[in-house]
Amino acid sequence: MGAKASGRAERTFTETARRAQIVEAAIATIAELGYARTSFAKITKRAGLSGTGMISYHFAGKDDLVRACAEETSRVLAAFLRPRIEAVSGYAAKPRAFVESTIELVEAHPAHLRALVEILNNAKDPEGRLLVDAALLTSRVTHVATHLRDGQRVGEFGASPCRSQAVIIDGSPECAPPWREPVETVSTRPSRRASSAGVTGAGRGSGGMAQVRVQLREAMETSLITLSGKAVDARRSPSILGDTMSSEILDRIDYDEARLAMSARFAPSVAARAKHFDDWTREFLRGHERATVVHLGAGLDTRPWRVDPGPGVTWLDVDYPEVVDVRGKLFPPREDYRMIGCPVTSPEWLDQVPADRPTLVLAEGLTMYLRPAEGHELFRRITDRFPWGVLAFDVHNRLAIRLVNRRLTRIVGSPLLRWGVDDARELECANPKLRRVDAVSALFAPSAAGLPLGARIFARLVRPVRSLRDLGMYLRYEFGDPSQV
């Protein structure tokens, strides 16, 4: 190669590298500051260039640079998604892989995603037309819709509008980037930092009530997340659960509320689940005026006050001693109500529960934190202890375990869920004393009627895909002989 040719190749390589450097700096700047606040000067500073003329040399104005940024972000995102989706086979497996890989995408390339959304929503020419072809937004939807149609042709999926279903899957609550809608935190007062580990009374809250500083560890911290979800729902109109007591209790807690990250999008699901178990509890108590109710892993739930059982009902909430200590400082006393500070996997709490009457055992939001062997052993102890009763709880399937663990890692710093149940028959095989009465998808439970419209549309359209339809299930079993009580 001659000296001139070698020089041209070197200049071409340098210019290509410089162009890529500018594009990456622009993407990072748009992601951090937003499209409207991004300027050549800020891009130049981030890229470490000598002046804005370097950008003008490589790009024919801002519009040209914006299009280059959109193309690069699309290339990066497609390169991440495509091999993960193509690595699985089977029509039912591919939508599942799409959801999982999109969650991974949000975590792996947050800046590229944020920049692309900013550009697609805000980059316009002087006539107000979008600079970037909307096909960049819809290409994923088209890919999913085509796959669903192919699955319908071979009988894998039922009849449904594939394009609409693909739009919902692409924008489902689990795979939506966190900036697609504003996040509503649960704060009703200025945020305060958490104290050292433990629980102490401190300060004065609204209405002059003493503040309680709280710092719970690992899985126990999720009790604050669900409490905050019910508090957010209580401020909605209409509210699904109407749990104003949770809102009042939350206002008394001195805690780093920014860590809760409870979005208004997720709060209705927390409230709908609680309402479903409230309804099952009321149904049980209507048929048994004299009964025992045991709520395992009660956390900071206010169910005894929401349900308000009659005088013939003994109610026991079981949770770790630290959680019970918090409850004792926040919750008022009530007749025939006791708290047991004990891990639910320990057999010790069972000796403190009367076994001479019909028994309802609730385990809302608990099973997924147990190891499978722990869960099966817990249910065996329950069915051996009480002569007759009902066991009601919810489960996540294995896909949901992975999705929620990623969210928990962002909120509390570690994945906490261990037990995914894809088929309710697993529980009956492990414990023949259990007789299944109900198995209800959380998306189709009666309480789900109060979810926002988008969630209800999502439920309807993912019905053909079992792994998405059954992300969460509500299960109810009977055990024992009712004539024995």
Helices and strands, with pairings:
Blueprint: H1 3-33, H2 40-47, H3 53-58, H4 62-86, H5 93-108, H6 110-122, H7 135-153, H8 162-170, E1 198-204, E2 210-215, H9 222-234, H10 244-251, E3 253-254, H11 267-287, E4 291-296, H12 303-307, E5 313-319, H13 321-330, E6 337-341, E7 359-363, H14 372-385, E8 388-396, H15 398-412, H16 425-430, E9 435-441, H17 453-461, H18 466-469, E10 472-480
Parallel strand pairs: 2-3, 4-5, 4-7, 5-6, 7-8
Antiparallel strand pairs: 1-2, 8-10, 9-10
Helix pairs in contact: 1-2, 1-4, 1-6, 4-5, 4-6, 7-8, 8-17, 9-10, 9-11
Terminal CA distance: 96 Å
Strand % is: 5-15%
Overall body shape: elongated
- Count every beta strand, where a strand is a DSSP E run of 2 or more residues: 10
Content-based structural category: alpha/beta
The chain-level mean pLDDT equals 80
| Share of residues in helices | 40-55%
Descriptive notes:
The protein has 485 residues and is an alpha/beta fold. The protein is elongated and about 85 Å long. Helix content is 48%, strand content 13%. Helix 1 packs across helix 2 (40-47) and helix 9 (222-234) packs across helix 10. It has helices at 3-33, 40-47, 53-58, 62-86, 93-108, 110-122, 135-153, 162-170, 222-234, 244-251, 267-287, 303-307, 321-330, 372-385, 398-412, 425-430, 453-461, 466-469, and strands at residues 198-204, 210-215, 253-254, 291-296, 313-319, 337-341, 359-363, 388-396, 435-441, 472-480. The chain contains 18 helices and ten strands.
